């Protein structure tokens, strides 16, 4: 049963390709979740995130930073600051290093 034939014909590229246009913050509930996120979308789509000033999640980086420190240096730099700097530069709001 094909309930949405029009959507199937007009959805180009496939919906999974749109994930490459999104950024994700590193604020997750476990180290395993962050490892999975980086593996799924790549280090170039993840940015350091916090709930600061709220004490909701990992406001001190106790979950995030140990995992980020395991990541190769080039990818670590992207997550800690490089991705945000590049995104801001692309938006005209900053410079990339």
Strand content: under 5%
Classify the secondary structure makeup into a structural class: mainly alpha
Strand order of the largest sheet: 1-2
In the predicted model, the low-confidence regions spanning at least 5 consecutive residues are: none
N- to C-terminal distance: 53 Å
Overall mean pLDDT? 83
Helix content: 40-55%
The counted number of beta strands is 2
Query: How many structural domains are formed by the residues?
Result: 1
Compute the gyration radius: what is it? Answer: 17 Å
Shape field: globular
**Major sheet:** 2 strands, parallel
**Structure annotation, total helices:** 4
Order of helices and strands: HEHEHH
Give the arrangement of secondary structure elements:
Layout: H1 5-10, E1 24-25, H2 31-41, E2 46-47, H3 64-70, H4 73-90
Parallel strand pairs: 1-2
